[in-house]
Design goal:
alpha+beta; Arc Repressor Mutant, subunit A; 2 domains; two-stranded antiparallel sheet; 10 helices; 8 strands; globular
Length: 275
């Protein structure tokens, strides 16, 4: 009788780690860095060149990357166009969020944006600059908004899934301005205050001379799905202006939550009703 042979299992943690590292390369692309060469990737990641090349080749073969025929630098590939279309057809968030954001921008004449959480920050879903005369806020819709330094991020940490808060608060934080809080204890206190006040208000945390307010919109379980934020130059963010913008956001986020089939938690509804 033949003995039973035991073969090592394939995949598991090691394979998942490889997939995570390969997909992590995509995070280095941005509006200001649309193409990245092999050597640059090696420097950015601190991986050896052979490993980076294998990851890039796999991503290119699946359509997630392609290469500039002249420079051979890598850039985001056509697979994202198809996946974005599938996402919007099956989960039509943009088409539901955009009218609310646009109306807020037109009513307030300020920059309004809706954002969803990713692993390293908030990703803009839709935004519109309401075109207020004079000083205006610049905005990069293709960039990630840091959780710890924006009203959108703090609102998400305050009302989102507890695991998101745990993962973010255990990390390290970059200081962007003199007002950026980079201590975990300070951020925890700030988040607790936002939970009790019902909204997040940032005063030059991410960019000098820029203030913002943000509120969450919720899914069917009463967990924040994303946020809507209004950003203004610091010179226009008086106490009265902040209060007015928060009231406007309460109505918008309540309406969006309902449109998405979600529910605002009872304690949040109570807080919002007394703002």
């Amino acid at each position: 009788m033949r003995g039973v042979k035991h073969y090592p299992k394939r995949g598991g943690t090691a394979q998942m780690s490889t997939v995570t590292k390969a997909l992590g390369l995509l995070e280095y692309f941005s509006k200001s860095r649309p193409e990245i060469g092999l050597s640059n990737f090696t420097q950015l990641t601190n991986f050896d060149k052979g490993t980076v090349f294998r990851y890039l080749t796999a991503l290119r073969d699946q359509g997630f990357l392609d290469q500039n025929p002249l420079t051979k630098a890598y850039r985001l590939g056509p697979a994202f166009i198809r996946l974005a279309a599938v996402r919007e057809i099956t989960v039509p968030l943009v088409s539901l969020v955009a009218p609310i954001v646009d109306r807020l921008a037109e009513d307030t004449h300020e920059l309004v944006h809706a954002a969803l959480p990713q692993m390293k920050g908030m990703s803009t879903l839709h935004y519109l600059d309401g075109g207020h005369g004079g000083i205006r806020v610049g905005f990069n819709g293709a960039g990630l908004l840091p959780f710890h330094a924006t009203s959108s991020g703090i609102a998400m940490l305050a009302f989102g899934h507890p695991d998101l808060f745990k993962n973010v608060i255990s990390g390290e934080f970059e200081k962007f301005t003199d007002q950026t809080s980079v201590q975990a204890n300070d951020l925890t206190q700030r988040i607790e205050y936002v939970r009790s006040s019902g909204f997040a208000a940032a005063n030059q945390w991410f960019e000098a001379d820029v203030c913002s307010v943000a509120l969450p919109f919720f899914d069917g379980k009463g967990i924040a799905l994303g946020t809507i934020s209004i950003a203004t130059p610091a010179s226009r963010m008086s106490d009265d202006a902040r209060t007015s913008l928060v009231h406007t956001l309460v109505h918008a986020c309540t309406a969006l939550t309902s449109t998405l089939g979600g529910q605002v938690p009872a304690y949040v509804s109570s807080i919002w009703a007394h703002l």
